Backbone:
């Protein structure tokens, strides 16, 4: 009889302990579930949830992962906002840049439709219309390149290239304009200097800088192009003897559509240097400018050598 009572008591105690354990973990699970729900609600509402991280616990391990997930989602949301702002800014800039040549074309067409205009004037306005059409075409091409760079569509085909070849590809495009202004272009580039980059796009970046040098160098001026190398980078140095760039503007000139008041009467869109900087930086390089007005400016394009 005593044995039965002992066994019964043991069973009752075991059941009681089991019930206690079940209730204890049920409360723990319920509390964890409630806390998890609040955390997820805060994540959904972007309320910067407080993740309680206690090491070596199930709660802590789950909170670590939740925190990491929240950071990833938050980062993507922020990137999405920045991308949206970029697109809105780009659309606004495009609208602003297209407005002037489009308005000019409309005005020229209205004049050409008049019956009282003589043949000489008609020819003049046809030529003006053609110039505005070419400006629009150039603008559209530049904007396409710019949008492709900003959205990461471009795939650079990087290879070991002679810097002399890159400079040659760029110079071909500006020689005629330089000759029209009687600007001498002096080149000093050893054949032994190489860079690891995309020939087409790097030549485009160097051309944009050279094109600016020709624009802002006075007639009978001089542009020098040289190349050098150090332990990590091959460098292309382009120097002109134009008016130079004030220190206050040297960081701004690489901005999209930026044009200094000092050169507002010189034809240009303010896209070239923006494109050059993006092309070079996307390939692991960088561009710096040195200038002390009125002694011209020097642009140094640095590209990785491997």
Residues:
């Amino acid at each position: 009889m005593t044995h039965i009572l002992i066994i019964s008591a043991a069973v009752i105690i075991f059941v009681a302990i089991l019930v206690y354990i079940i209730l204890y973990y049920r409360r723990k699970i319920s509390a964890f579930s409630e806390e998890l729900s609040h955390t997820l609600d805060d994540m959904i509402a972007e309320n910067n949830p407080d993740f309680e991280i206690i090491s070596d616990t199930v709660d802590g391990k789950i909170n670590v992962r939740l925190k990491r997930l929240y950071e990833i989602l938050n980062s993507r949301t922020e990137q999405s906002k920045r991308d949206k702002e970029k697109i809105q800014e780009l659309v606004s800039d495009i609208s602003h840049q297209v407005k002037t040549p489009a308005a000019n074309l409309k005005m020229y067409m209205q004049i050409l439709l008049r019956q009282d205009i003589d043949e000489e004037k008609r020819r003049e306005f046809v030529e003006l219309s053609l110039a505005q059409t070419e400006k629009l075409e150039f603008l559209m091409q530049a904007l396409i390149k710019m949008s492709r760079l900003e959205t990461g569509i471009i795939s650079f085909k990087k290879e070991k290239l002679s810097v002399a070849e890159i400079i040659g590809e760029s110079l071909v495009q500006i020689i005629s304009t330089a000759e029209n202004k009687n600007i001498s272009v002096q080149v000093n580039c050893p054949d032994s200097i190489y860079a690891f980059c995309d020939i087409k796009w790097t030549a485009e970046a160097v051309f944009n800088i050279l094109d600016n040098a020709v624009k802002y160098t006075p007639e009978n001026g001089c542009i020098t192009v040289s190349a050098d190398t150090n332990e990590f980078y091959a460098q292309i140095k382009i120097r002109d003897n134009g008016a130079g760039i004030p220190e206050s503007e040297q960081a701004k000139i690489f901005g999209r559509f930026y044009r200094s008041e000092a050169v507002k009467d010189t034809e240009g869109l303010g896209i070239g240097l923006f494109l050059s900087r993006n092309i070079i930086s996307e390939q692991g390089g960088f561009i710096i400018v040195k200038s002390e007005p009125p002694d011209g400016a020097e642009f140094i394009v640095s590209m990785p050598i491997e």
